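Write out the 3D structure for:
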Amino acid sequence: MSSYLPAPYESAPDDDLPAAAGAALTGTLAVLIAITLGRQAWDQYPAAVDALNGGSLVGDDLAQVVTAGGWAASAVLMGLGAVLMLVRRGREVVVLGALIGLATTILARYAFDWFSPAHPVTHGVVFVGGAVVIVLALLPATTRWISGRGSGRRHRGLPPVTSATPLTPTRVQLGQAR
């Protein structure tokens, strides 16, 4: 019985659905988190500029500058990394941006006492989304997407197949088998 479908080892390296889905989910969530962090950094931008122009970086002024700068850097890196993931690059940039955003959020929460009624931050739960982005970016499926290794179903020792036609041994291949 013959089939028109290729054997598992003949599949193209780009047809790994879990890898593509993992990369798409990572990129989409990175963009959403980047938009939220960027919006918060943009809201803090005037206060951070005033603190820098005033010259005294103490208390709330220091908090404004550090959080605005950290969240802005995180937003730029995660947005850039998400765009680069479309061309199978940028996983490291997404992870770095998520780490910076997560560290800035932890610093804002525990060092500057934000996310409290005294210092409310809009959409505070989303800032911890950097942890989810890190986990998604480090999944094996996303790693396969970035590396371009495909589904990994090609067995060792078999030659790469360039078409779906059945393999027929040649004289050279038969001679190597001995």
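Residues 36 and 126 are 7 Å apart (CA to CA).
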